[in-house]
Amino acid sequence: RAYPEAMATVPARRSIMSGRRIFPFRHYRRRPDLNSTPGWEPIADLANTFPAVLRRSGYWTAYVTDNPFLGFTRSFHGFRTTFDRFEKVRGQVWTGTAPAPVSEETLHHWLPPDVRTPYALKRVGNYLGSTGNGLDETQSCAARTYTAAARMLDEARMHEPFALVVDSYDPHEPWTPARRYLDLYGDPAYQGAEPATARYMRTRDYTSERLVRRMRQVYSAEVTQTDHWLGVFLERFHALGLDQSTVILLLSDHGFLLGEYGWTGKIASMLHPELIHVPFVIVDPARRRAGQSSSYFASTHDVGPTLLSMAGVLAPETMQGVDLSPLLAGGRPPRRRYAYGGYANDFYVRTDRWAMMSDNRPLGRKLFDLHRDPHERRNVAREHEHLLDELYHVVVERTGGRLPFYRD
Questions:
Q1: pLDDT mean over 122-148
Q2: Which terminus of the chain has a lower count of CB atoms within 10 Å, N or C?
Q3: Helix (H), strand (E), coil (C) string for the chain
């Protein structure tokens, strides 16, 4: 049961790297090179990220990414300098030369009329021009990122102990998977346009169920293509024998709505599991509890304390997450009765039985009984107003006061 305490891309990575709770996004100040969404700011305390702490303790540190924000913006320049090696992978952002021209036929193949907005035409056009028009998967961002990371392993093993962060932006949209992956999920005879992206809105307001079904197939194919290239990296990792001495932690920052609850995209008011339930996998080189799972409420800000503990390095007092490694020895971290976090101006809080979500004021409150309604289809907020107040005050108390709400 792992949930990001802060969303989306940049807030999640601030939480992961710092080991701190980023939500609620107090004192937010918009940065011109980052999205205009609360929480999208640089990491404030660069000296106490988990890679920086490891580096001070004698670890060689590296970061490989195609992430357009951490890899290429001025806001994250300082962060990039805290590593021994930082490799930027082009594709999501193209530097040096312009993307290759893309024909209208190719562009329309990846953008059906329902999603053919001016922004999408520009974004997908630049992406296709940077990644081989979706024809050669070795030019995909996932392939470039994981093969660059695989090469980095050869350098890393010469500098053991090391800490390597591989940050793949895929399977973020645009989705342009190779046909061999599409045919795993859809009709191999399909000849229609492929939705390489989705609009962040209600499906009933812009598209058909048929296109949403294809969107799910395209997304599934993109995930599978990304998994393939992650596998290329892991094959090199194992071939070098690094699995005998190195911890692996696999994590995602958030999910994506593909028609669930009538929406597509990342919708801040729809903080259901499809958007906030993420994979969180720890592979211990001693293979403790291999293949087993835990029902503990894990979160993104637990990454730093956990990895530092497993490396035998003391976590700085600034880190607020918990060390999850006791789970590997059959123990339990400190009790955590609630999972909570937020995205933009909205928050969620979850217990073993209840799931609440609301905007920060709090207006538009929703409540779901997970025992009776595990798929979160029936809002029972009107029947449990006292419980709504109780859960809201839990979040307010634990975050240090009333939640901020930012207007455009």
A1: 93
A2: C
A3: CEECCEECHHHHHHHHHHCCCCCCCCCCCCCCCCCCCCCCCCCCCHHHCHHHHHHHCCCEEEEEECCCCCCCCHHHHHHHCCCCEEEECCCCCCCCCCCCCCCHHHHHHCCCHHHCCHHHHHHHHHHHHHCHHHCCHHHCHHHHHHHHHHHHHHHHHHHCCEEEEEECCCCCCCCCCCHHHHHHHCCCCCCCCCCCCCCCEEHHHCCCHHHHHHHHHHHHHHHHHHHHHHHHHHHHHHHCCHHHCCCEEEECCCCCEECHHHEEECCCCCCCHHHHCCCEEEECCCCCCCCCCCCCCEEHHHHHHHHHHHCCCCCCCCCCCCCCHHHHHCCCCCCCCCEEEEECCEEEEECCCEEEEEECCCCCCEEEECCCCCCCCCCCHHHCHHHHHHHHHHHHHHHCCCCCCCCC
